[in-house]
Amino acid sequence: MKKLILLATLLTVFMAAGCANRNQHILDSNGAEQLKLRSMQTRIYDTSDRESTLRTVIATLQDLGFVIDKADSRLGSVSATKLEKYDLRMTVSVRPKSAEQLSVRANAQYNIYPVTDPEPYQRFFDALSKSLFLTAQMEEE
Fold it and tell me: How deeply is 106 buried, as exposed, middle or buried, from its count of CB atoms within 10 A (0-12, 13-18, 19+)?
């Protein structure tokens, strides 16, 4: 009986060690993938005007063919959907990075799956950067 308990205990320990090693590997690869995805989804802008940036995010999404579903200036988020040939949903968050900078993060989903292709993010941030530049130029005049 003692041998059976010892054998069961050792088997449990080895199985747990194997699972921990495999789970650590999964977490490591997911961590690197998440970091890469987050870097595609985030841009830092040299402005502290969160309200103006949110308005520009809304206008940019509309220019790209999205319909605004929800905008919350208190939370600093905008959600929009593009239904042309596919169901693409994008949520954009605007948060202070420092006293002079804002972090803008876009999170896109195709149907229910996260978008990992950099192209939609690049298209959004290119358009947003141009709009923010034009907005800043108009405010200076």
Answer: buried
pLDDT tens for 30-88 read: 778 888 888 899 999 999 999 999 999 999 999 999 999 999 999 999 999 998 777 89
pLDDT band at residue 22 using 50, 70 and 90 as cut-offs = very low
Say how many C-beta atoms besides its own lie within 10 A of residue 50's C-beta: 14
Length of the chain: 141
- Single out the residue of 107, 105, 81, 83 nearest to residue 95, CA to CA: 105
d(CA 67, CA 83): 8
pLDDT in tens, 3-13: 555 555 555 54
**114 Cβ neighbours under 8 A, 6+ residues apart:** 37, 107, 108
Pair of tokens at residue 17: 């060690």
> Taking the CB of residue 124, how many other CB atoms lie within 10 A of it?
22
DSSP code at position 125: H
CA distance 24 to 38: 20
CB atoms within 10 A of CB 93: 19
